[in-house]
C-alpha cells in the first residue's frame, strides 16, 4: 500500500500558458501533501505544504499566485503553474503523509515540466 | 532551505565494494530518513532512524545517527550496479505533519 501517483508524468507547454499537475494518494488518505521542485542535478526544494480543506503554506520565495495549490480532498492535491516561463522548467514531485500514520512520506513519481 | 550537506557529492566504486555516504544537518530533529532516486525518477524511501536511535539495519543498508555531531551515515554493503543512483538524507524537525528537508545528495556510481 501507500502508492502516490502524479499526472501527467511529463508535459511540454508554451511560455505563458498554465499547467496543472495532479497528485493522488491511491490507497490511503492523506491529510497533508507536500510539493517539491528539483532542478537538474540538484536536491529537492520544498515549495509548499498542502493541507486538505485549507490554504497551502508556501515556502519563502515561492510565489503563491504563480503556483496555485488546491487540496480538495483527502486523496488529491493539484499544483497549477500559471503563466509558465522557461525558468519554471523543472521536475515537480509531490509527497503524501498518511492520515494518522507514521512520519514517512510517500512520493509520487514526479512530473517533468518543460516550458518552451 | 536545505538542512545540510551530503558527503561526498559524488562517489564511484567497483561492484562488490562498500559505499559510505555521510550527511550533516543543522537543527535538532525528530528523525532522519534516507532516500534513493534514480535519474529522472521519483524517490524511494530506504530507511528511517529516529533521534533516539543510534543505528539501524535494513538488508544491505546500515544507517547510523550521531545527534551530538548532527550527522548520519549510510553504508551500502556489497554494492551492485543496480545501486547506482542519487542518495539523499532528509530530516524531520518536529513530530506531526512537517515536511522533509533534504540534503544535497550523493551521486553513487557502481561500476560492474
Explain what the structure shows:
The complex is a heterodimer of chains A (116) and B (112). Chain A contains no helices and eleven strands. Chain A has strands at residues 4-7, 10-13, 19-25, 30-38, 44-51, 57-58, 67-73, 76-81, 90-98, 105-107, 111-115. Chain A is globular. The mean pLDDT of chain A is 91. Chain B is mainly beta and 112 residues long. Helices cover 0% and strands 54% of the residues of chain B. Chain B contains no helices and eleven strands. In chain B, the strands form two sheets. In chain B, strands 2, 4, 5, 9, 10 and 11 form a six-stranded mixed sheet that branches. A five-stranded antiparallel sheet of chain B has the order 1-3-8-7-6, with no helix packed on it. Classes of the chains: A mainly beta (116), B mainly beta (112).
Keywords:
heterodimer; A: about 120 residues; mainly beta; seven-stranded mixed sheet; four-stranded antiparallel sheet; 11 strands; globular; B: about 110 residues; six-stranded mixed sheet; five-stranded antiparallel sheet
Radius of gyration of chain B: 13 Å
Helix- and strand-based class of chain A?
Answer: mainly beta
Low-confidence stretches of chain A: none
Question: Which class of secondary structure composition applies to the elements of chain B?
Answer: mainly beta
> How much strand of chain A?
over 45%
- The count of β-strands of chain B is 11
Q: What is the helix fraction of residues of chain A, given as a range?
A: under 10%
Mean pLDDT of chain B: 90
Largest interface: A-B, 28 and 25 residues
Amino acid at each position: 500500500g501507500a502508492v502516490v501517483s502524479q499526472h501527467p508524468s511529463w508535459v511540454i507547454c508554451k511560455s505563458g500558458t498554465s499547467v496543472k499537475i495532479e497528485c493522488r494518494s491511491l490507497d490511503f488518505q492523506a491529510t497533508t501533501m507536500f510539493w517539491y521542485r528539483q532542478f537538474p542535478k540538484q536536491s529537492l526544494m520544498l515549495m509548499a505544504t498542502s493541507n486538505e480543506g485549507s490554504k497551502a503554506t508556501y515556502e519563502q520565495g515561492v510565489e503563491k499566485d504563480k503556483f496555485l495549490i488546491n487540496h480538495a480532498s483527502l486523496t488529491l492535491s493539484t499544483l497549477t503553474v500559471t503563466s509558465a516561463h522557461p525558468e519554471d522548467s523543472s521536475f515537480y514531485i509531490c509527497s503524501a503523509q498518511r492520515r494518522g500514520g507514521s512520519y514517512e512520506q510517500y512520493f509520487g513519481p514526479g512530473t517533468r515540466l518543460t516550458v518552451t | 532551505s536545505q538542512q545540510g550537506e551530503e558527503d561526498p557529492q559524488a562517489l564511484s566504486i567497483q561492484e562488490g565494494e562498500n559505499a559510505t555516504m555521510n550527511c550533516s544537518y543543522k537543527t535538532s530533529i525528530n528523525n532522519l530518513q534516507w532516500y534513493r532516486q534514480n535519474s529522472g525518477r521519483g524517490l524511494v524511501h530506504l530507511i528511517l532512524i529516529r533521534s533516539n536511535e543510534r543505528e539501524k539495519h535494513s538488508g544491505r543498508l546500515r544507517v547510523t545517527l550521531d545527534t551530538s555531531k548532527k550527522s548520519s551515515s549510510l553504508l551500502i554493503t556489497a554494492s551492485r550496479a543496480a545501486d547506482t543512483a542519487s542518495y539523499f538524507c532528509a530530516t524531520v524537525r518536529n513530530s506531526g505533519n512537517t515536511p522533509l528537508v533534504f540534503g544535497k545528495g550523493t551521486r553513487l556510481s557502481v561500476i560492474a
